[in-house]
Amino acid sequence: MTKEEVKQVSRLFKKLLILLVLLFVFDRLIGTWLQHAYQNAPQGDIKTFAHSITDPAEDIFIYGSSRAVHGYDPEIFADSLGLSCFNSGRENSNILYHSAILKEMLKKHTPKVIVLDVSAKELTWRSAENSKFVLASMILPYVHSDTSFQNIAKQLFPDELRKAEVSKIYAYNSLVLPLVVGKRKLKHGKNLHGYVPLRGNKVEGKLPSFTDDNDKTDPLTKQNFEDFVKTVKANNIRLYVVQSPLLVKQFNTTISLDTIKSILNRYNEPFWDYGFDTAFTKKQLFYDNLHLNTTGATLFTEKLVSDIKADIEKNQPALLNHQQSAK
Questions:
Q1: Which of the listed residues 68, 72, 200, 274 has the most CB atoms within 10 Å of its CB?
Q2: Handedness of CA 42, 63, 132, 142 (dihedral sign)
Q3: Host domain of residue 16
């Protein structure tokens, strides 16, 4: 290699080194800004997640996917039961997500009641893979400061963890848009203790099918559901596992629902099925075929809370009497 060629190679390496340094500095600067924006997010999924694991204090917590987010009004729980309530539901999530945030919450706070809304596809692999992505987007910002979240990431999405360890920006990759936009404008209404009401109705045509083509459950997801139930019972929390109303062609069961019922039976816990309750299978109560609108959510929450109140008064009246005497 000639001296001129050596000089060219040397200049190339210097340029690459400068580029790498600039990329590192850029990553750390932008990553630090995103971290600050994340920690100060005013509302939406980020704020709901953060509250559920950093400063939970309510008596009742609701878990579930979008059907929980839009179908359970915490204010009705509070008004009827005299117990404070927060909706920790998350769009596109399943029990993998809920099990993870439940365990983190219990390190700081033990509620009196937990309501878990489940889907007819709750435990199948497609649902599990989607929930892993949702969980990763929420957990990655915490992996540098919390070893428990780091362990969850190692187990469920190690590749994503490695990328987040290299790049500070990567931890906020799926959250950049809402963070840049700032205070997110909710399309249908305000975030009310985690509950986001859906207004209006866009149900059209014949009822669609909502069956699960999978013939087996995801082992990890199934185990997480059982762990969720065991954890709740071990902490003496009253548990209600619910299938909320649907506006689809009626089906008898799915592999997920059968598995859920089987696990609940082993722990002497009932399954509360409102999926095809005729009181709610009316188009005017739905925003779309899977989600209640604000009118439907109000009616359903009132019915569910009434049933829960009757169950508590029968089986654990001190839970309500304590609250009433404290007022």
A1: 72
A2: positive
A3: 1-40
Residue 173, C-beta contacts closer than 8 angstroms, at least 6 positions apart: 137, 140
Overall number of domains in the chain: 2
Q: Read off the amino acid at residue 271.
A: F
Closest-CA residue to 277 (of 228, 243, 306, 316): 243
**Same domain for 284 and 225:** yes
Q: Are residues 211 and 285 in the same domain?
A: yes
3-class secondary structure, 61: strand
Examine the domain organization and report whether 33 and 48 are in the same domain. no
**CATH number where 208 lies:** 3.40.50.1110
- pTM, rounded to two decimals: 0.80
Return averaged pLDDT per consecutive 10 residues of the chain, 327 residues in all.
75 83 76 65 66 91 96 97 95 89 93 97 76 74 73 79 80 61 48 87 90 86 96 97 97 95 97 97 96 98 98 91 50
Q: 33 with 170, same domain?
A: no
80 and 136 share one domain: yes
The H or E element that residue 225 is part of is: helix 219-234
What letter represents residue 45's amino acid?
D
Contact by Cβ (8 Å): 52, 149: no
Beta bridge partners of residue 223, listed in sequence order: none
Angle at 303 between CA 302 and CA 308, to 5 degrees: 95
Tracing tokens 């005729």 back to the chain, one arrives at 278
Residue type for position 138: M
Say if residue 199 is in the same domain as residue 124: yes
Residue among 309, 185, 303 at smallest CA distance from 244? 303
**Beta-bridge partners for 195:** 192
179 and 302 co-located in one domain: yes
Cβ atoms of 138 and 175 within 8 Å: the answer is no
d(CA 307, CA 139): 35
- Beta-bridge partner residues of 239: 114
Q: Residue 115 and residue 43: Cα distance in Å, rounded?
A: 22
Residues 66 and 29 in one domain: no
**Residues paired with residue 63 on neighbouring β-strands, in sequence order:** 116
